[in-house]
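Students often ask why inverse folding is considered easier than folding. One informal answer: many sequences map to the same fold, so there is more than one right answer. In these notes we will look at a single instance of the problem. The structure comes first.
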């Protein structure tokens, strides 16, 4: 189970969350933790809350969902997590999650709650 502390990575000390950001983070983690539990796996955060200089250092998009606590990247060094989620993509729709195409994210899986036209999207 991914905790709020793991997700925030201590960055909330330097860049405090607004109430909306806190609610978004809790909502995101509830959905992601449900997915992980349903898949019966555990995962670790590679990138959670990514404000300001952290987003720039990660070469994140200027309007990245990480900035507003609507996205999380999970470590997927072997590519098995991305494949497992793709094999169960119906759960993404049920949980209101979007997945960045794992073929484009080698070493991690990106999940978010930012509504898009396609449940699986390309960066």
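Output (designed amino acids):
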């Amino acid at each position: 189970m991914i905790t709020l502390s793991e997700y925030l990575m201590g960055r909330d000390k330097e860049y405090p969350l607004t109430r909306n950001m806190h609610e978004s983070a809790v909502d995101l983690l509830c959905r992601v933790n449900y997915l992980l539990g349903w898949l019966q796996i555990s995962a670790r955060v590679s990138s959670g809350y990514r404000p300001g200089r952290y987003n720039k250092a990660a070469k994140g998009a200027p309007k990245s969902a990480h900035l507003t606590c609507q996205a999380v990247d999970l470590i997927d060094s072997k590519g098995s997590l991305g494949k497992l989620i793709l094999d169960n993509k119906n759960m993404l729709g049920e949980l209101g999650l979007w997945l960045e195409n794992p073929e484009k994210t080698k070493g991690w899986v990106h999940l978010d709650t930012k509504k898009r036209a396609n449940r699986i999207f390309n960066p």
